[in-house]
Structures are given as C-alpha cells and as structure tokens.
Write a structure and sequence with these properties.
With 508 residues, the protein is of the alpha/beta class. It has helices spanning 4-12, 20-43, 52-68, 164-179, 203-209, 211-214, 257-260, 267-276, 299-307, 312-319, 331-334, 376-389, 401-406, 430-440, 459-465, 491-505, and strands at residues 74-76, 86-91, 99-105, 125-127, 137-139, 154-156, 187-193, 218-221, 233-235, 237-249, 255-256, 339-346, 357-358, 361-370, 393-395, 410-415, 423-424, 448-450, 453-456, 469-472, 488-490. The protein binds zinc ion.
C-alpha cells in the first residue's frame, strides 16, 4: 500500500524528472544509427589474438571510440613483444569513495568462414531474427536506415556478442551518462583485453606491470550471455579451465587391418577404453579425488540457485536431448562442480579417406573445467595418476624405440599452456549487494544470480595479482553462437546492456 504522503510526493514530481535509465535510453534512441555504424565498423576488423597487425587495428579503433567519448586512452603493453595490448582509460570522479574497473575483451575466437551461412565473420549484417527462426539478411552493406531499429534484429559477425558487445555497451553507457549530465559516483576505469580467447597468456604480465593503474574495488566484467530465460544476471565466478592432450601408441606404421587385425592393438580402441574409465554412465568422473577440493557453496549461493528460473526442461527440448547427465541435479548445480570433457578425438580417417587400416596413434583433447578450491596442477596430476593406474607409462614426448620395447602401454600427456584456476566472489559482500541492486534497478523481472558461470574466464589472474574482487554482468542473448560460426547479437540485448552498465557506473 502507498501511504498518502508518499503518493502526494510521487504525484508532485515534475514530469521531466527522468530516471537515469530513461535518460540513457533517450540518448541511445537519439543515436541508434550513429552507434550502429560505429559498431559495424568495429566488427569489420578481424580480431584473432594471434593476428598481430589486425589486433592492433582493433586496439587503435577502441582508442578512437574512447576519444570520441572524452576519454584519454592509452595502450597497456605486456613485456612480451607483439603481445596484444590492452586498451585503458579512466575517469576520475571528485570525492568518489569507490573505484570500479569495467572489463571486456576485443579479440574473438578463430573461425572458418566457409561454415557461416551466406555471410562472412568480419562482414557484419543484420538478420530479421535468428537463422534458426528463419531470420533473413536485411542488407549486405552496413546498418540499414530505419528509425528506430527493430530490436529483435540480430547482428551477425564474429565477436558481435563475444565480446565486442561488452566494449560497445560499456563505452556507450559512459557516453550516455556524460551526454545527459548524469554524475558518476565512482572513479571509473576501462580495460579492454586483446587475447582472452587465446587464454589470456599475457594478462598477468600486463596487470603486474600496471598494478597501480588497474587497482579497483571491483572488476566488473562484461562477457558472456544472459540467462537462458532472457533475464539479466549477475555472475559471481567462473570455472577455471585447463586443456590436456592425450595420445596413445600402437604399431609404429599403419597396418593392414585384414593382415594384422586381432593381433596388433588398435589405438582408437585403447584410447576409448582409457577415456571410458574416467567417467561412469551418469557422467560422474571416477578419477580418484576429482571432487575432493571443490569448495562448497554458502547459504546465499544455495538460495540463489533455488530461486533461479527452472529452465533445464526447455533447454533439453531446444537441444534435442532426451537424456542428460548428473543424476538429476540441475545444470546450475552441476556447473559448481569440476568436469572432464572430451573436446576432440582423432585416430585414422573417416569419410572419403576411410580405409582398412589399424592407425598408429589415437589422440584426445581433454578439457578440465575447474571450480573454486581446485588447483589446475593438482587436478591434472590426478588425471595423470589415473592414466598410470590403468597400466600406462606416461611421458610428455614421443616414445623412443627403446621405450616402445620396454612398455606395453604408452600415453603421451601434454598439459596445454594457458590454464587457470576458478574464482568465485561471495554474494553477501557489500560490493556484491550494490551490484545486484544496480542491475535489478534496470528491470522489473527478478534477475538471476549465478554463483559460477559455465564458461571460463581468467578471473584468478586478476585476483591473484590485485587485491580486488570480480563480478560478471553479461549482456548477450544466450543463443548467440559464441565461439561458433554464425555468432550473433540480438539488438535489444545491446540496448539493455547499455542501460545495465550505466546503472553500474552510477552505483551509490
Ligand atoms: Zn568472451
């Protein structure tokens, strides 16, 4: 019930007293065409982290976008030559009690242009809807002029969602606040990384080199999708990740499967058996100690999971899955325990090159997702110990003839560089509560609070080098095809993202 006095106050408020959100929305509506032109140009720059020349063109473009918004950007270089630079700027607010750093990354995953449907990764186009929903290409060149734009349209381009959308939303939120004369309440820093998709190999170097610049009460990260239900969410942690190559060896040269089958061991079968020994039928990892270090969730986290929208059944329908793993636990619960995935498996040939042969080796790439409490080295050691337990001699290079003669089973195991541990910020910290309130203030729908995201982020590199916490506020549509062909961003998600980040920049 509204008390009469309060009602009087509400009614007496002048009609022009806009909320910050309304001001930001006005700014966006007035500038849609300009913003989209800017965004399309940005998306036209190829942005694979290893593409030294193009990645610098992206960094330069971001500096130009920052200058347009009244910022004085600079590049933060790693010690390692030719590493992608981070782009940095800051905005000091007199009397501010807090410093917030906003993070996004401007590099994207490599992609095969041939796998895209009628468009190319770095030639952004609008479609009227998702391809899966019959979305048609609107025009082949630049953003079409229709004012306002249909917010259900999608931009198809590499990094449209992951994660140039983050750069765009953050910088536009700042521009809108400045243009509308809304005061920021915190010192604001901007940090855009150029090699997140490559595993952030130099992020630690850059942070250590520029520790003072990058100090903040919190790093607020804009990366990844909103909840599958379409609701906004705040994510308090991310799984860690480490990848391992496992190769098993059979005869030194490929053998005729008729002449030698039944006698010479088949490496694909050996590896299949080895991998099958790592998990039970319900997907639970059977490697000793796999779940031992996982830090249990607190009360606030358990409550958040219980209150989250139930979406697994809908997701199963969409994905064509009758059966899922995890013994009846929800996807959200299962993300909070460590996993073991086969990213790829290769031995011999299939398709047109298939032939009657016993291959010489079989290789799998394993993906170990880690949670708070896990240590990447401890976890990979558990994997290695398990392989040894299955009778394998484990080494980190090709076996010699002498070693082949000595050991009946040989596995080569190589941990790929660039792995990192998981991180999770407590939901009941004052900064966590403030961020939750800010995001909630932008939407009537109850926002989703996720203790840990499914995807990984190098958060531990940040918290291990700086005394700060990290919180992620993703904005992309969940069906954005990130990392795959036909990556896309629903326009309304970008618009909502701008308002979300404006609210975060004006946290009380
Ligand atoms: Zn990303």
């Amino acid at each position: 019930m509204i008390r009469p006095l309060l009602l009087l106050f509400i009614l007496s408020c002048p009609v022009f007293a806009q909320t910050t959100q309304e001001k930001v929305r006005d700014y966006r509506r007035a500038n849609e065409q300009k913003l989209l032109l800017e965004y399309f140009e940005f998306l036209s720059l190829p942005n694979i982290a290893s593409d030294v020349q193009n990645i610098r063109r992206n960094a330069t473009r971001i500096m130009e976008m920052m200058k347009l918004r009244g910022l004085e950007p600079r590049l933060l270089e790693a010690e390692t030559p030719n590493a992608p630079p981070a782009v940095y700027a800051e905005w000091k607010t007199p009397g501010a009690q807090r410093t917030l750093l906003f993070y996004a990354h401007y590099d994207g995953q490599p992609t095969d242009p041939k796998q895209w449907t009628r468009t190319l990764p770095w030639e952004p186009v609008f479609r009227t809807a998702a391809i899966e929903a019959g979305g048609q290409i609107v025009s082949d060149t630049g953003p079409p002029v229709s004012d306002p734009m249909n917010p259900e349209w999608r931009i198809y381009a590499r990094s449209a969602s992951d994660d140039k959308a983050g750069v765009m939303a953050i910088l536009t939120a700042f521009a809108a606040l400045r243009a509308k004369g809304v005061a920021l309440n915190a010192n604001v820093k901007f940090f855009f990384e150029g090699e997140e998709e490559a595993g952030s190999p130099h992020l630690g170097e850059i942070i250590r080199k520029h520790k003072d610049l990058l100090a903040a009460d919190a790093w607020i990260i804009c990366d990844g999708p909103v909840h599958q239900s379409g609701r906004k969410q705040v994510v308090f942690g991310a799984r860690g990740d480490t990848n391992v190559d496992v190769t098993v060896y059979a005869a030194k040269r490929p053998l005729h499967s008729g002449h030698y089958g039944n006698w010479s061991p088949n490496p694909a079968m050996m590896l299949a058996r080895l991998l099958a020994s790592m998990k039970d039928d319900d997907g639970r990892v059977t490697i000793d100690g796999w779940y031992a270090d996982a830090e249990p969730l607190g009360q606030a986290e358990l409550r958040a999971i219980a209150e989250a929208p139930k979406y697994d059944e809908e997701l199963k329908k969409q994905l064509g899955l009758k059966r899922v793993e995890g013994g009846g636990k929800s996807l959200m619960e299962l993300i909070n325990i460590p996993s073991l995935n086969i990213n790829g498996f290769g031995s011999g040939d299939i398709g047109a090159l298939a032939r009657n042969v016993i291959p010489t080796t079989a290789t799998a790439v394993l993906d170990l997702r880690l949670v708070k409490g896990n240590d990447q080295h401890r976890q990979t050691q558990r994997l290695i110990d398990h392989i040894k337990k299955q009778g394998y001699h484990v080494m980190d290079r090709e076996p010699t003839d002498a070693e082949r003669a000595q050991y009946p089973l040989i596995a080569r195991v190589n941990v790929r560089p660039g792995g990192y541990n998981a991180e999770r910020t407590r939901m009941d910290l004052p900064i966590s509560v403030a961020v939750i309130e800010a995001v909630q203030s932008t939407t009537p729908d109850k926002i989703v609070l996720l203790p840990t995201s499914g995807g990984s982020l190098p958060l531990s590199i940040i918290t291990e080098n700086l005394r700060t916490v990290t919180l992620s506020v993703p904005i992309a549509n969940y069906d954005n095809n990130q990392h795959a062909e036909n990556e896309n961003l629903r326009l309304q998600n970008l618009w909502d993202g701008i308002e979300t980040f404006a609210a975060l920049m004006t946290i009380k």
